């Protein structure tokens, strides 16, 4: 059997340099989660307003990611990465200096836009720097580890920073990472451009981003302004319909409705959303739940969150073996069932009066939801790519991001409405229900022979 050539020292330097971008963009997302209660207190937020701290980033990231690939191909991948890095640096400073909710939300949106160019540029540069398929697969695996480490240590690092120096330093700490990337990339990474320049569908990007933004705003208004929520929701549906119609008429669509309209594709899309709500969105509400239950400061909360994030580094290889043995349908059904059980354990922990029992059940619930998400998360991307035609693999990757990030943003908003005044029982019960619906989608929509 032919083995891939080993990576030389310079190759490793290139990989670690490009992986640095994925590291600090993931670190920033999970570190912020632990600091949300402190931000809420300092800037006088409510729970619904706190949701926009995460959702502004996710929305901008999703919208710009759809455009970033075409822009990187047209103007240069290294140039796109460095531009995104500069935007992320400025936005991080703006986040740390924010004086109220709108200023923080605007800066977070700018961060998300910058992160989209950093991630897109890094992945595209890997593809051009390592043309050998076997080496490229090894490089992507290594970058995945670097990215996963950033996600896993984010809550702990964020908690320590928030407790010792204040939440603003969660954003200021991005500056040295950005400076290091600015210095290293021009020295180590060669510019790359696509031979064929892709068209940029600005209308499609704007329609989809605006539709998601209106859906989130409508969801957050449900409790206080039902008429306004209905109006915004109707406008969002009209924009989504306009997006679908525009994509059908587009020569090179962002997301082709004909490709993603099959039952299996719909099933995978629903599963991506279910995992985003029952795991990723839950991570946002675990810190205030723990602080409410135990009176913990951010540093201890961040350390405890490792129970939910560490499985993402350990469990994915098990998922790869399982999906080959039992197929998509039952693998994803079991994974979502595990997520449901984990959220039910979190719910049960709030009903105990003994602190030790509450802590034990909560930690167990976090380990279980982390394991369920780790089993499903990487394999869902592979399933969507496998279902898509070979010439639509890039489109399938974009669809994965839209479903995952859109589900995350909408999930945070929906759980904020359900939770109202920090009603965490309702939040965990809703997440468990969404996971059950995801398991049912896997059973009834996914093929049995794959």
UniProtKB/TrEMBL annotation:
What are the UniProt keywords, alphabetically?
Membrane, Transmembrane, Transmembrane helix
PROSITE patterns linked to this entry: MFS (PS50850), SUGAR_TRANSPORT_1 (PS00216)
All copies of domain Major facilitator superfamily (MFS) profile, residue ranges: 14-450
Q: Which SUPFAM superfamilies match?
A: MFS general substrate transporter (SSF103473)
Main localization of the protein? Answer: membrane
Q: Where in the cell is it found?
A: Membrane
Pfam entry (one):
MFS_1
Carries keyword Heme?
no
Its membrane topology is listed as: Multi-pass membrane protein
Q: Which residues cross the membrane?
A: 12-39, 45-68, 80-99, 105-127, 139-163, 169-190, 202-220, 226-245, 257-282, 302-323, 330-351, 363-389, 401-420, 426-446
Q: Name one GO cellular component term.
A: membrane
Query: Which GO molecular function annotations are given, in alphabetical order?
Result: transmembrane transporter activity
Question: Which family is this protein grouped under?
Answer: Belongs to the major facilitator superfamily. TCR/Tet family.
Q: What does this protein do?
A: Resistance to tetracycline by an active tetracycline efflux. This is an energy-dependent process that decreases the accumulation of the antibiotic in whole cells. This protein functions as a metal-tetracycline/H(+) antiporter.
Q: What is this protein called?
A: MFS transporter permease
Q: What is the lineage of its organism?
A: Bacteria, Pseudomonadati, Pseudomonadota, Alphaproteobacteria, Hyphomicrobiales
């Amino acid at each position: 059997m032919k083995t891939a050539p080993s990576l030389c020292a310079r190759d490793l330097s290139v990989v670690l340099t490009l992986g640095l971008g994925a590291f600090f963009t993931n670190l920033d997302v999970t570190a912020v989660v632990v600091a949300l209660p402190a931000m809420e207190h300092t800037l006088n937020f409510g729970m619904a307003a706190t949701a926009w701290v995460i959702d502004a980033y996710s929305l901008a990231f999703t919208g710009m990611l759809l455009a970033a690939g075409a822009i990187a191909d047209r103007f240069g991948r290294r140039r796109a990465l460095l531009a995104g890095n500069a935007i992320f640096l400025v936005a991080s400073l703006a986040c740390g200096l924010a004086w109220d909710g709108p200023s923080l939300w605007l800066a977070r949106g700018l961060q998300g836009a910058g992160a989209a160019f950093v991630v897109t540029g890094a992945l595209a540069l890997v593809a051009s720097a390592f043309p050998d398929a076997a080496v490229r697969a090894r490089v992507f695996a290594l970058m995945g580890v670097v990215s996963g480490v950033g996600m896993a240590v984010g809550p702990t690092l964020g908690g320590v920073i928030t407790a010792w120096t204040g939440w603003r330093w969660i954003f200021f700490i991005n500056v040295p990472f950005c400076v290091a990337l600015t210095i290293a990339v021009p020295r180590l990474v060669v510019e790359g451009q696509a031979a064929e320049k892709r068209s940029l569908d600005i209308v499609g990007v704007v329609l989809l981003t605006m539709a998601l933004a209106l859906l989130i705003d409508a969801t957050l208004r449900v409790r206080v302004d039902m008429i306004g929520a209905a109006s915004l929701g109707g406008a969002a549906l009209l924009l989504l319909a306009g997006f679908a119609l525009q994509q059908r008429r587009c020569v090179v669509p962002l997301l082709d409705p004909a490709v993603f309209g099959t039952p299996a594709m719909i099933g995978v899309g629903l599963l991506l959303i279910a995992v985003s709500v029952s795991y990723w969105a839950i991570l946002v509400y675990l810190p205030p739940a723990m602080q409410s239950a135990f009176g913990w400061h951010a540093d201890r909360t961040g350390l405890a969150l490792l129970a939910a994030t560490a499985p993402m580094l350990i469990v994915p290889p098990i998922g790869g073996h399982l999906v080959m043995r039992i197929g998509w349908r039952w693998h994803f059904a079991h994974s979502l069932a595990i997520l449901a059980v984990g959220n039910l354990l979190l719910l049960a922990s709030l009903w105990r009066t003994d602190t030790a029992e509450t802590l034990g059940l909560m930690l167990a619930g976090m380990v279980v939801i982390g394991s369920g998400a780790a089993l499903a998360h990487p394999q869902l991307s592979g399933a969507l790519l496998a279902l898509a035609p070979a010439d639509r693999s890039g489109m399938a990757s974009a669809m994965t991001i839209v479903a995952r990030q859109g589900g995350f943003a909408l999930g945070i908003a929906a759980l904020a409405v359900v939770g109202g005044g920090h009603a965490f029982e309702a939040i965990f019960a809703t997440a468990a229900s969404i996971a059950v619906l995801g398991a049912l989608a896997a059973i009834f929509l996914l093929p049995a022979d794959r």
